[in-house]
Amino acid sequence: MSNLLGRGGLGKGGLGKAGSGAAGKSAKSTRAAAPPDAPLKAMSLLGRWGRVAQGHVAFGGGCSCAGGMGPIHMSEMELHVMDYLAAKYADNAAVQRLLAEDAGYKPNEAGNLGEVLKAIAMGAAGTVKIADQLSILADLERSIESLDEITRGGG
Question: Which pTM value belongs to this model?
Fold first, then answer.
C-alpha cells in the first residue's frame, strides 16, 4: 500500500523563510535552491498525479481496481503515501515541516500530495536539501506509477 496515492489538489502555496546575513550584508534566503530539474520534475509529476486522481472514477465511494483487496478510497491511498514519506524522512526536520506546513500532513489523518509537489515545483520547499527533494520526487514517481497501473487494472 505504501506505493499508492490518493487524490490531491492545488491550494495554498509553499511557505519559505528568509534569514539575515552578517551585519552590513543583505538578507539571504535560507531555502535550498533546487536545480531546474527538481521543479520541472515536480510539475510533471503534479500533472500526472492530477490525471491519475481525476481519471479514477469510484462508484459507491470505493473502487474494485485493486483486485481482491476490496474497495479502496483514493484518500486512503494518498494518506498511506504521506505516512510513508513521513516515516522515511522521520529524522529530517525540513521534510517534516514541508509535509506538515505545506501539505497539511497529520499522521494517519490528513495530507495532500499535490501540495508537496507544488511546493517543490514552485521552489517553496523551505530548507529541504536538493538531494532530499529529488529523493521525494523519486518516491512519488514510483507511487504514481503504481497507482496508475492498479487503477488501469494492471496491478
Answer: 0.69
